[in-house]
TrEMBL record:
Its cofactor is pyridoxal 5'-phosphate. Residues 30-384 form the Aminotransferase class I/classII large domain. The gene is patB. It comes from Petrimonas mucosa. Coiled coil: none annotated. Its EC number is 4.4.1.13. This is cysteine-S-conjugate beta-lyase. InterPro entries: Aminotransferase_I/II_large, C-S_lyase_PatB-like, Class-II_PLP-Dep_Aminotrans, PyrdxlP-dep_Trfase, PyrdxlP-dep_Trfase_major, PyrdxlP-dep_Trfase_small. CDD domains: AAT_like. Belongs to the class-II pyridoxal-phosphate-dependent aminotransferase family. MalY/PatB cystathionine beta-lyase subfamily. GO terms for molecular function: cysteine-S-conjugate beta-lyase activity; pyridoxal phosphate binding.
Length: 390
């Protein structure tokens, strides 16, 4: 490989959430951090070089996106996802979760109902509830180690409730599903026919694993295109979450006008200098780095699967189709969730995400971030083996 993903980078004293928040979240700070969804790899050198060059300019005045910024996004989406987008359809937002919150504010009122599909990324529940909306759960179906959308359940929900928004996680976090085109079409049909706006979080779209292809929701049908806001970013893809470089794609002019009507007066659609520079550098020069990162992540996934199968067969990996996050089925350990968390944290010395933060459907599960060095995973899993087997 051209890039060294085995290099261990000291992330202390770098305002790193996964290290600096260990004590507050887990009660101790001597854990191997495998929780927060960023990677321990150096970002593509081209991004750092572009940021350094821009910083040397020395003036950091008011900023406006230029053609280079927009065209880098347009070209990337076309080349990576066969997704045709026009400049006027792209809007900067200061984070995907923030983009979801802004959409909820722009298109719903207090006590309106919003559909989520747990187990799912926890802000999907926390954000609407914090904004005074009612969350309606349509849990994913789980069969033979694979998750799928419960369309019958969704139809019952929309028949019994006046719902305003459905939050779609695509690819899915934490299950790692890459939704098929026919699944997305069916979802689009139900939501369009029932006046339910789809907010599609596609932040992991570039991280599909070998053999899988992401389909942007808006591309699967005209109903999907007319009735959605797609949120994307280079942040997960190139490990630049701290730069805050997300954007929304909205094809329907009426929906776009309403969304911008919320964002623009608050200047929430105004990017920082570093967001513009990093986005363009990532999309123009990051392809080779990304391909190698995905290959390394796949190697890590294979290692974790093999290790658990051989040494801790009670823990099953729900094989991901995208992302650097592994959803671990620990139910055969026959522990309560409290006991399961205690095992990982206090016996094994590991910081993973508690499965129940993704909904009650996550009971008996833990989420493991494999976006780290193989040597770190080897050390972590050996500690887990000793904690379970003695």
């Amino acid at each position: 490989m051209k890039y060294n993903f085995d290099e261990i980078i000291d992330r202390s004293a770098s305002h790193c959430v996964k290290i600096d928040r260990l004590k507050a979240v887990f009660g101790r700070d001597d854990l191997i951090p495998l929780w927060v969804a960023d990677m321990d790899f150096l970002s593509p050198p081209a991004i750092a070089e572009a940021l350094i060059e821009r910083t040397r300019h020395g003036i950091f005045g008011y900023t406006v996106p230029d053609n280079g910024y927009y065209n880098s996004i347009i070209d990337w989406l076309r080349q990576r996802h066969s997704y045709e987008v026009r400049r006027e359809e792209i809007t900067f937002v200061p984070g995907v979760v923030k983009g979801i919150a802004f959409a909820i504010d722009a298109f719903t009122r207090k006590n309106d109902k919003i559909i989520i599909q747990p187990p799912v990324y926890h802000p999907f529940r926390i954000v609407p509830e914090s904004l005074g909306r009612e969350v309606i759960n349509n849990p994913l179906l789980f069969d033979n180690g694979r998750y799928s959308i419960d369309f019958d359940g969704l139809r019952r929900i929309v028949a019994e409730n006046e719902c305003k928004i459905l939050l779609l996680c695509s690819p899915h976090n934490p299950a790692g599903r890459v939704w098929h085109e026919d699944e997305l079409k069916q979802l689009a049909e139900i939501c369009y026919d029932n006046n339910i706006l789809v907010i599609s979080d596609e932040i992991h779209s570039d991280l599909t694993l070998p053999g899988y292809r992401h389909r942007p929701f808006a591309t699967v049908s005209e109903k999907a295109r007319k009735n959605s806001i797609t949120l994307m970013a280079p942040s997960k893809t190139f490990n630049i979450a701290g730069i805050v470089s997300s954007f929304a794609v909205t094809h329907n002019p009426e929906i776009r006008k309403q969304y911008l009507g919320y964002l623009s007066p608050r200047e929430l659609d105004q990017p920082t200098i570093h967001a513009l520079v990093a986005t363009e550098a990532a999309y123009r020069e990051g392809r080779e780095w990304l391909d190698e990162a995905i290959a390394y992540i796949q190697k890590n996934i294979t290692f974790v699967e093999s290790f658990l199968k051989e040494h801790i067969p009670q823990i099953k990996v729900i094989r991901p189709e995208a992302t650097f996050l592994l959803w671990l089925d620990c139910r055969e350990l026959h522990l309560t969730q409290k006991e399961l968390v205690y095992l990982f944290v206090h016996k094994a010395g590991l910081a993973l995400n508690n499965g129940t933060i993704f909904g009650k459907e996550g009971e008996g599960f833990m989420r493991l971030n494999v976006g780290t060095t193989l040597s770190t995973l080897e050390k972590a899993l050996d500690k887990l083996r000793k904690a379970i087997n003695g």
